[in-house]
Amino acid sequence: MNLYIEQAVADALVAAARRAAPLEACGLCGGRDGRVSVFHELANRDASGEHFTMLPEDQFAAVKAMRAKGLAMLAIWHSHPATPARMSDEDKKLAYTPGVAYLITSLADPSAPQTRGYTMRDGDAHPLVIHTIETQQQGDAT
Prior knowledge:
By secondary structure, the protein is an alpha/beta fold. The chain has one domain: Cytidine Deaminase, domain 2. It is about 25% helix and about 35% strand. It is built from 3 helices and 7 strands. A 7-stranded mixed β-barrel has the order 1-3-2-4-5-6-7. A hairpin with a 7-residue loop joins strand 5 and strand 6.
């Protein structure tokens, strides 16, 4: 499976991870047809460097804003401030939203942040191929 992330969103994921470090950051990504065009940074209620919890009211507001633009939630995102961009056992256990990708941005090497994506099938994480693409200008969307 492939996921296409607009460059502005890819940059926003790294920026959010850096702002939150050493804590984990989190948020939701939306778009259509496998193209991620928006990012909603949400608060990590846990304020932890090892796990995150999004507030349900923040999630609801982000999904509502996406739907108002004709977009769907395509991915759940969080950062790993000091570990690789892989699904931890806890990440897998908490990955219960069907039909979305799970994106992780790692700052383990601060000079070379890395974002990887996964889908969950049968309780296991399967890598996605992520393509960073040119940001679509406002008004270009159809």
